[in-house]
Every structure is written in structure tokens, then in C-alpha cells.
Amino acid sequence: MKLVSLIAIGMLFSASAMAGTKDDFIAEVKKQCGKDDGAAAALATGGRQGNVMKWKTCTSATVTVGDCTLTCTDSSSKIGG
Amino acid sequence: MKKIAIAGLSALMMTQGHAQSLEERVEALEYQGYENFFKVSGSMEMRFDFVSRDNKDSYTTFSDPNAYAKALATAAAVGGGAAGISAFQAAECGETILSGAVTKEGCSTVGDDQQDNSRFGRLFLNLDVESNPTNKLSFYGRLSMAKYITTLTSQGSDPNSGAFSDLSAGANASDASLWVERAFANYKVNDDPTFTFGRLPTIDGAPMHHHKAQPMAGNYPILAFSGIFDGMALTQNFGKHTARVVYSPLSTVNFSDSISAQSDAAGDKLSRMEDAYALMYEYSDGDVGFARKVNVIAMHNSIGNLPITGTDLKMNLQRTSLYAEALDVADTGVTLAVHGMTSTTESEGQVFSDPALAGVSAALPTLGWLSGEEDDKTTGTAYGILAKYRFSNGFLKGSSIGGEYFHGSEGAFLYDAGNNDPVSMYTTYGDAYRVFYNKTFEGGLKWNVQYMSQQQDYIRPYVGLIGEAAEVDRKTDFVSTSFIVNF
User: Fold this and answer.
1) Which are the contacts of B156, defined by CB distance < 8 A and separation ≥ 6?
2) Cα B478 to chain center, whole Å?
3) Chain A contact for B332, CB < 8 A?
4) How many helices and strands, by DSSP H and E, does chain A display?
5) What's the CA gap between A13 and A4, in Å, rounded?
6) pLDDT for B226-258, tens place per residue?
7) Angle in degrees, 0-180, between the axes of helices A20-33 and B2-39, rounded to the nearest 10
8) The complex's ipTM?
9) Which pTM value belongs to this model?
10) What are phi and psi of B313, to 5 degrees?
11) For residue B275, which phi and psi values (nearest 5 degrees)?
């Protein structure tokens, strides 16, 4: 019992401080393209030229990541951001 | 032994948890670093326009009513009253009469069957600034430059110096100056609503983003009000719905004296700041089923008691507008957008209201807002529709092609001074249509080409909005091509 509770505490300590931008991207892929966690995470390719930054920089009306087309919003063009 | 094992296991758990947290923190820092690189961001467009205008019936407009009135008064004084006035009225704009004593200036005439062609190149630059000092506060800014390509000489008045020019500062081609086009801060009051103040991101709104294959680049649709407004706003989100109220008063400035009371030409007190506000409702839905996304913006804009310095002319304007778009309808790649507005313009007084003009007032037209009368109320409507198709495979992949139609009625208040087009489709008193094509190359270079044709049925003599509408038959076409980069 003690072991189990210790394992549980250990897992709690590993609770993540994940990259916020990547989290936002995955949430958008799940919402806009109906993908599950695994598929959305697979699309979250890293690096400056990766899908996450392509979506974040939002320089065109749509961003195509794999078979998913995302719409992004330019916060600098919206009152309230 | 058990105790040691448990202690060892728990130590291992702690270490595993700590290392995982470090990796993820490093990843977060990496992304932050990438974003910092892109913080110096913006866009640039080099654009060439080939414009032709075919005007069937002659019309005259005022470029400087004061100069015109002064010249008329001089003609009356020099030419012996009525005779001088008659000579002035019979003369062409720019003609010198009465033995060289008077030039009929401050007006220009476009003649019967006058055809004009022009080509020019321009450069537009936006440098974007973003700062998020806390999780409650964000700041966005844009510095804009708009100029003609390598200008050696110029004439006429700079578009950034006249009345109303602050509404489109940095948007009209003049020179290599940088203008602050937007600068606003958002503060989250608890989690919602958001309080915003500054130079608001209102210009370059819908449906302009469709021509340029960009996300919506301004919050006010063009038919709501196409201009830059300084002010403050309160935004409240309700899931897919957003409600917003904007207070953006308008200033009448006297740089020589900012405190003493000001009077208009009739001697009435001139207010230094007049109220203007907007009420907005937005709806954005990515779950509609028949399209990838639907966006709707409904607005009511109100401008009260707006004066024009040097006259007793005042305006009260109410505009109600609706913009709706459906992106990627039924997965076909087709986007549809519709927009419309209705306006009520109340005009009081007129441009030629200086008491010194009393002697020649009979020879001067009455120039009121959208009217040839001193106190009038004018209503009108305008609407447009746009359809665009985005190619998602084949050799045209990354391109889109589209068409657009617009109609403005005679009594509508149409304003779009910040538009980059040589003539704005959205200020057509008549019908206009556009076809456009844009191609986004691998790596982000965009190429745009468009053809627009405008049939203008009515013209007003001063700034397109003041004076009685004259019936005209003027067709203006342009072909334009541009290279655009977003960085």
C-alpha cells in the first residue's frame, strides 16, 4: 500500500510543464480537425520550420499540417487580442 | 531492507519526475526562443497598378473650397459684382480671367469623354511589435510605411496632411516615413472580459484578407468603418460569441491654442472632442458542419456632431453593418463572404459658411454631407458578395482564385480612404466587380494579381462625400500585381 502511494506521489511530481505553444497547437488540431491526442501530437513537429511554428506565426489564412487544414487568428488584428 | 527499498524507490520517483520536468521546460524555452526570433515580424508588399478611367459626362470637384471661394470673392470685387461672378462661373477650372487678376482655382474638372491612363509602383511595409509582459497583459503595435517607388518629384497635397488623414495614417502612399498604424494593449480583467486601449486594429478589415490570402487583418469590416480609431474597448467572450463595445472619440485640434474656446464660422462653440462609439457582435464557429469555419461580425458605428474646422458643417453618422463568411464550404475549398451596410447621415450647416462670403454666397453651391442642402438627412445602403476557391492539389496547389461584386446606393455613406487600391471598390456609387488570383510559393512568398472594374454613377463635388450628387458615367479599371512577404 505504501509503495503504491509512493508511486502515485512520484507520478504527481512528474506532472508536466509542457511547451505552451505546442499545447495550444495540439488543442487546435484536436478541435478543428477532430484528431485524437496521439494523431494531434504526431502533427506537432518541432523546429522553426515545423508545423507548430507555422501555425503560431499565422502568415496565411490557412495552415496545412498533414491532412489537416487549420485556421489561425492574427491576435494583432483583433481588439482584445 | 523494505525501508531501504521504499526510500530508494521514492528517490527514483523523485529523480524521474524532476528530469522529465527539466526536459519539458527546455522544450518550452526552445519554443520561446523561436517565437522571439519571429517577434520582429511584419509584411511587405511591392505593388504595380495600371489604371484607366473613361469618363463620359463632365463633372467638377472641389480640391480646396477656401481657395475657390476666395477666387470668386476676388472676381466679384475686381469684375464689378455680378459681371465678375458671371465671368468666374463661365470659366474653366484653372483658367485665369479678368485680365489676369483671378485664377479659378481650388477645383478641377474631368471633361466629357475624357480618358486617362496611369501606371505606378508602390511599396507598403508593416513592422509588427508584440509584447506579453504578464499573463494578463499583451501589447501589439504596427509601424507602417506606404510610398511610391523611388519618388523624384511630387505635387498636390500629401494624403497624410489633410482633414481625416489620421484615419488612414501610414496606409496612403506618400513617402518613406513610418507611421504608427496600431498600438494597443489588452488587459484581462480576471479571466474575462478584456479591457483594451490605444490605437486600435480597426483598419484593413474584412473582406480584404481574402484578396491577399491572409488571416483577417483588421477588426472592423470595411463596410463598418474602414479607418484607424484611437480609443478603448471592453470585450466579453461567451464561447463562440463575442460582445464588444468601443469608445473612440474624435478630436478637432488647434495646435496654436489647446485650451481657449474655439468657434466655428457661424460663431458657435466648436467642440474639441466628439463622441464616437461602436457596438460589435462576433460569432465564430468551427463546428458548423457545412463549412470549416463560419465568422460573422455585426456592428453599429455612431459618430456624433462631427465638426469641420473653418465651417459650420456638422455630421451625425449612424452605420449598421453585417459581415459573414463561410470558409471551405462542404470541404470543396470554396469560401463565400457577404457584407452589407445601411447608413443614416445627418448634415447640419455647410462648407461655405464664412460670413465674409455673404456677398457671393448665391454663386456658391451648398456643400453639406451627402447633400446640397444646409440641414438634411440621407440614408443609403451598400452590399457585396465574394467567392473564392483554393486549389489544394495539382500544379495550382497553394493558389486561390476569386471574384467579388459590390453595389453602393446614391445615399450611402461610403468611406475607405486607407485602401491600397488605386480606387476603392467599396466607395462605388454604382456597381463594381473584381477578379483576383493569389499564389503562395513554398517558403512564403506570395504573388497577387487582380482586375477591378468600377462603374461610378454618382459623384459628389467635395471629398466624394460632401455636396449634392451629380449623375455621371465614369468607368475606372485597374490591373494590379504585387509581391507580398509575411515575415
Assistant:
1) none
2) 19
3) no
4) 4, 2
5) 14
6) 999 999 999 999 999 999 999 999 998 888 888
7) 80
8) 0.78
9) 0.86
10) -75, 130
11) -75, 145
For the record, the C-alpha cell of B477 comes out as 479599371
B27·A75 Cβ contact <8 A? no
Domain boundaries, chain A: 19-77
The C-alpha cell of B443 is what? Answer: 517558403
Instruction: Give the domain ranges of chain B.
Output: 190-486
DSSP bridge pairs for B315? B306, B347
Pairing mode, if any, of strands B241-247 and B269-270? unpaired
In whole angstroms, give the CA distance from residue B373 to residue B346: 11
The answer to whether B233 contacts A80, with C-beta atoms less than 8 Å apart, is yes
**Quick one: CA torsion of B72, B73, B79, B83, rounded to 10 degrees?**
60
In this structure, what C-alpha cell is assigned to residue B44?
A: 511587405
- By 3-state DSSP, what share of chain A in percent is helix, strand and coil, each rounded to 5? 55, 10, 35
Residues 6+ apart with CB under 8 A from A22: A44, A46, A52, B27, B31
Residue A22's closest CA among B24, B396, B280? B24
- Partner-chain contact A69 B328, CB within 8 Å: yes
Grid cell listed for B406? 459590390
C-alpha cell at B305: 456632431
Beta carbons within 10 angstroms of residue B127's beta carbon: 17
pLDDT in tens, B88-144: 999 999 999 888 889 999 999 999 999 999 999 999 999 999 898 998 999 999 999
Domain covering B190-486, topology? Porin (2.40.160)
A61 Cα to chain B: minimum distance (Å): 4
**Residue with C-alpha cell 460632401?**
B466
Cβ contacts (< 8 Å) between A47 and chain B: which residues?
34
Q: What are A44-56's pLDDT values in tens digits? A: 888 877 888 888 8
Q: What is the pLDDT of residue B335?
A: 95
**What residues pair up with B382 in beta bridges, in sequence order?**
B341, B408
Q: Distance between CA atoms of B469 and B452, rounded to whole angstroms?
A: 23
Cα angle B155, B159, B160; round to 5 = 125
